[in-house]
Design brief:
This is XRE family transcriptional regulator. The protein is mainly α and 409 residues long. The chain has four domains: 1-72, lambda repressor-like DNA-binding domains (434 Repressor (Amino-terminal Domain), Orthogonal Bundle); 77-208, no CATH class; 223-326; 332-409. The chain has 23 helices and no strands. It has helices spanning 3-18, 23-30, 34-42, 50-60, 64-67, 82-93, 97-100, 115-130, 134-154, 158-180, 184-199, 204-220, 224-238, 246-265, 269-286, 299-312, 316-325, 333-349, 353-366, 368-373, 375-384, 388-391, 394-404. Helix 14 packs parallel to helix 16 (299-312). The model is unreliable at 69-78 and 96-103 (pLDDT under 50).
Length: 409
């Protein structure tokens, strides 16, 4: 296991001993076995649920931030919209415990808005994700998430299920934007709470969508082992639904794409392309581009991921051949911009400076918030900036100046 896991385990062990608790007694307090506690303390097991981490924090008296490994959960990208950082902090500081600690004599919390209005706002949040409008989305979620949390507790009957569905969807959008903007710890919280909300709805597809978001959060945290296990478990569970349900097929396809990406990041080309082939088959089974639970799964998005995978494996030629032949007109702004960013990286690998400038300029025209906050773009500009050819190129210098400005109007 990693040094980070051992540090977390050591901190838990020290606090447990300080409280005079055996591993078994501590395990009972957090709903786990003594052997599970021992494995965590030795660093042999990672804690893969935020709800468990929150319980450990409460019982052991260790601040939640101290349990977040600095090595695994590095954050903050320059130029990140302030609202996104505020959303991350709000999620890390808040806890479902405050809703459960209400005295029995206290009245139920009162929702400020009608359920129908909150449900509609949760649905509209996906438009902001796919439009790469991160600042606007984060500002809306700062209000919407606590309102939905209150509403599900203030409502009974059938509307309660619909509100839980909306709450899970809203947490999905939060996890999506936080994963993209280097806030993996908060993305983990959001994905974990999405799964918890989905479990109240009885909709297994909504639970699987939460697992998909959790996979992305773990990748953002560079915890590829957890990301692989999460995606693999969710994919295996979805096989029980067969291939006649297009939503299940879409979610399985989206998970296969993530397994392919993870394998490519580990340098395992055979596994990466094998998983990509399985995703191709699932896309062909559905026959068209879909957007179940915000996954945008379909033939075009499989192609976008093939470009990403080829790049990770150092095959810029394949990345360019596939990417430049793709018709992505039916995909969201976010997906189209991501493809252009990857094409820019492929051009850089082939030392085609004009290709880099053209691709990043086109991407910035589409989605400036995405491009100007993307870690890959910052790394690319920094690496190219160390070359004489780039520094002497007027178009590249203008692009660097353009991308250095705030994307928030």
């Amino acid at each position: 296991m990693t040094e980070a896991a051992r540090r977390v385990g050591g901190a838990i062990r020290a606090k447990r001993i300080e409280r005079g608790l055996s591993q078994g007694a501590f395990g009972k307090l957090i709903g786990r076995s003594g052997s599970w506690v021992g494995q965590v303390e030795r660093g042999d097991r990672k804690i893969d649920r935020m709800s468990v981490l929150e319980k450990i924090s409460e019982v052991a008296g260790i601040p939640i931030a101290d349990l977040m490994s600095a090595a695994a959960f590095a954050a903050a990208s320059p130029g990140k919209p302030l609202a996104v950082s505020e959303l991350a902090m709000a999620l890390l500081r808040s806890s479902g415990l405050r809703f459960g600690l209400r005295r029995p004599s206290e009245p139920k919390p009162h929702a400020r808005h009608e359920p129908a209005s909150l449900i509609e706002r949760a649905a509209q949040a996906w438009e902001l994700v796919h439009g790469s409008s991160y600042d606007t989305l984060a500002k809306q979620l700062l209000d919407l998430l606590p309102e939905l949390e209150t509403a599900v507790r203030a409502t009974d009957g059938e509307p309660k299920k619909a509100l839980y569905t909306a709450l899970a969807s809203a947490y999905h959008t939060a996890a999506a934007v936080l994963s993209k903007l280097d806030e993996p710890a908060a993305a983990w919280v959001a994905a974990d709470r999405a799964i918890s909300a989905a479990e109240h709805t009885g909709d297994p597809m909504l639970v699987a969508a939460g697992a998909f978001r959790l996979t992305l959060a773990f990748q953002s945290a560079r915890s590829l082992e957890l990301a692989w296990a999460t995606a693999e478990d969710a994919d295996e569970a979805l096989t029980a639904f067969g291939t006649t349900d297009p939503v299940a097929v879409s979610l399985r396809g989206a998970l296969k794409l993530q397994l392919a990406v993870i394998a490519s990041r580990l340098g395992d080309a055979d596994t990466a392309y094998a998983q990509l082939d399985l995703a191709h088959e699932l896309a062909e089974r559905n026959g068209r581009n879909r957007n179940d639970h915000g996954t945008e799964f379909g033939p075009a998005n499989v192609g976008v991921h093939e470009v990403t995978i080829a790049l990770a494996l150092g095959d810029s030629g394949r990345a360019l051949r596939v990417g430049e032949a793709l018709d992505v007109s039916g995909l969201s702004v976010e997906r189209r911009a991501r493809l252009l960013i990857d094409l820019a990286r492929a051009h850089a690998q082939r030392r085609n400076l004009a290709g880099v400038v053209a691709a990043l300029t086109a991407a910035d025209d589409l989605a400036p918030q995405q491009v100007r906050t993307h870690p890959a773009v910052r790394t690319l500009l920094s690496d190219l900036g160390e070359t004489t050819a780039a520094n002497d190129d007027e178009a590249f210098t203008e692009l660097k100046t353009r991308l250095a400005t705030s994307p928030i109007e």
